[in-house]
Structures are given as structure tokens and as C-alpha cells.
Amino acid sequence: MAESLQYQSGFGNHFSSEAEKGALPLGQNSPQAAPYGLYAEQLSGTSFVAQRHENLRSWLYKIRPSVVHSRFSLRKENNLRSRPFNEVEAATPDQMRWNPVPIPDKPTNFVEGLITIAGNGENSSVRGSAVHIYAANNSMTDSFFYNSDGDFLIVPELGVLKISTEFGVLQVEPWEICVIPRGIKFQVKIKGDTARGYICENYGPPFRLPHLGPIGSNGLANPRDFLAPTAAYQDKKGSFELITKYGGKLWSAIIDRSPLDVVAWHGNYYPYKYDLRLFNVINTVSYDHPDPSIFTVITSPSEMEGVANVDFVIFPPRWMVAENTFRPPYYHRNCMSEYMGLIEGVYDAKLDGFVPGGGSLHNAMSAHGPDAQTFNKASKGDLKPQKIENTMAFMFESSLVYQPTRFAVESGLLQNDYISCWRDLESKFAPPASKSK
User: Fold this and answer.
1) Active-site annotation holder among 289, 332, 362, 368
2) Distance from C-alpha of 427 to C-alpha of 380, rounded to nearest angstrom
3) Which of 97, 100, 143, 331 would bridge with 369, disulfide CB 3.0–4.6 Å?
4) Low-confidence spans in the chain with pLDDT less than 50
């Protein structure tokens, strides 16, 4: 079956799709004999007794069920980690910033190019997240991957990814994101020579759209702009490796057919993509700089109302029109921890040092904000309407403190002089002259 790039529109909708007409059973999920000799298999993303509006599951009609594989064995360790980390690197109140990871010299595919920068919570506790980066120069050909520990939110910075999944094919480029929920098998091919980007691995509840509250019914990410794939299957024999991230480690099994053999499916648990250029920015049209939460695309909630396990927030092109207002992000201390990345351009709070492919981490209550150059420029600039263009930054924001990995601290990518960007913020205090009695 040819792999198509057709999509279905909507966030959280119940979809159905068949690559062969009549492959999807009607009226019964697991009939005594599924059409065309297929096997019925349910994939559950939540517990069976989750509330109806939060219950995620899909029925897959496969050429062969997922149970057919060899025993799993541990793979050679790489730079992919899960919380709690084996190596002990203390979470730090210091502001941290990294240069981009280089593209590998030797052939490296998506899974081989995964590197963990930081993490919080624990992968087995349904709480927390991890920040990974990937750098690859080779496609996956004879291997497939699924994550048993969490969802993958993939944010490309360089290169186009063709992601073939059990549900169909997603093509994802910079300025787009995709989410591969836990348990879904996929294979990544690179269109071009190289690919690099960021990943938020979500251990917590599945991502959802944030509540709009007083914003009303429109604004931010529109549900209809999220795209799910249509069924496209591989009926391919051979010797393949099935890799899974399980309990924080990579495991490998041998299979003799492609696992992307789903001929039809229906449900509300599936991979999806979203074009960040479609985000409807809400901003001030009078005065004051709004909190960054106004730029939330999707969120994973925690057990505490209003306190996110992890948010995905973007800083896209937008008009700035606030009067009598310091327009870049204000100086700030926050109970949340923030990992920032840059997809393209220049971030308006950091004119130097923060580059595409790089990242920064400001953990809970660590002060951060514009560098001295940005502050001086913005304090004296003309406040006529201005459009910020040709830039896309993002943030993984979590209520838990991020602990960096040993790689993040010792790889040579950490900018040890980052804190100096605030060094020239001198006192400008000029109290009125005291009056003599």
C-alpha cells in the first residue's frame, strides 16, 4: 500500500480510516473474524475506567498482532535517559544555556541521535517530563521504535521528517510539531541530508488544548488545525529490529514483518501534527506585557488544578502595540521551570548567544529576563506599532524542577559565560534631590 500524506482534521476527535475498502468492521470492534483475515487489537492511552471525555483508545486492524516478536534484550546504552537519572547531576538555581548539538559525523538515525538534556518527575509515576534533542543524518530503514514511558512531542528545527506510524504517515517540517503518543510504533526517515530538533517527553496525562476562559470561544490553537494521518500500511517481510524505550532504557526485539501493518483503524488515540503558523496570537492592545501563558499551544495537566505537568508554549510572529510599556519579556522569577528552544530567527529578549538549535533552562525561582543590550534598546525605543517577524521560539514549562544530565553539563555545549549577559545591567537609580529644611 502506498504511503499517502492525507490527513483528518480536528483535535481529540474520534476518527476512522481504512486503507482497503471494507477493512473496517461495522458495528462491532472485535468480530469473531475481522475482514480480510485481519487481527483486531485495541491500543489504550488511558485506563479503562477513565472518564468518558478523557478515555483514549483506538481499535487497530492489523495483518499480524503486536505480540509476535522475539524476546527483548537491552540495547547498548546511548545518551537517552529517563528520570530518575542514574548519573547524579544536581538541579541548579543557575541560569543555563547551550549551543546547538553538532550533526553527527558517522551515520546516525533518529533513535541513535536522541540525547537527553534534562528531566523531572519519574517516567513510571505518570508525572514529569524530559527534554531531549535529536541530531541525525540517516533514515531508519530496518528498525522501528515505540516509547513505553511517555508521549513524544517532536519540534523540528532543521530538516524535514517523514514519520511512518501504525496509523499512517506524518510529514513534519520546521515550524510544525507532531505528537506520537506512548505505545505507537513509528519509523523516521529524513528528507534531505540532516535533521535536528527538540523533543518533550511527557510522562504525565496526555496533551490537551488549554482552557480559554475569558478569551472566549476563539483564539490560540484552533482544534480543526490539528491533523491526524489516514490509514496506510506496510505488508513487508524481512528481518527488522523493534526498539522500545521501557523503564528509561532501550530494549530491542527481532520481528520478521513490518509492524506498521494496520490496514484500518478507528478511535481517538493517534499521532497528530500542527502547524505553528496557524496559532492565533492573543496580545495586549493597550498596555502591559501579558504573561507567557497566553501563548500555550497544548498542555499536560497535573493533579493540581491550574498547575501544569508541562506546557508547550510558543513565541511566534506577532504585532506589538502596547503603549508606555517595556515590550520584551519582563524580568521574572517563576514557580515553574522553563526550558526554551529556538527554531528560527532571534528571540526578542536575547539578541546574542541564543541561537536556533540551542536551548536555555531557567529552573523554578531562578531570575531571568532580557540581556543588557535588549533592555537598553527597548527602554528608549519608539513605541509605534511593530511586527516581530521571522522568528519562532518555544518553551517547555513544567511545575517540577528540571535536573540536567551529565551530557548537558559536561559535553562542552554549555555556555559557561551565559550569566554575563546581565553583567552590564547597572544601577540607574536617581532619587529626587533631598530638600533642605
Assistant:
1) 289
2) 16
3) 331
4) 437
Domain-wise residue ranges, the chain: 70-260+270-276, 280-419
Q: What is the pLDDT of residue 85?
A: 76
**Looking at domain 280-419, what is its CATH homologous superfamily?**
Jelly Rolls (2.60.120.10)
Structure pTM?
0.95
pLDDT at 3: 66
Q: What is the pLDDT of residues 108-132, one digit of tens each?
A: 999 999 999 999 998 778 899 999 9
Taking domain 70-260+270-276, whether its CATH number is 2.30.110.20 is answered by no
| pLDDT of res. 90 | 74
> Same fold for the domain at 70-260+270-276 and the one at 280-419?
yes
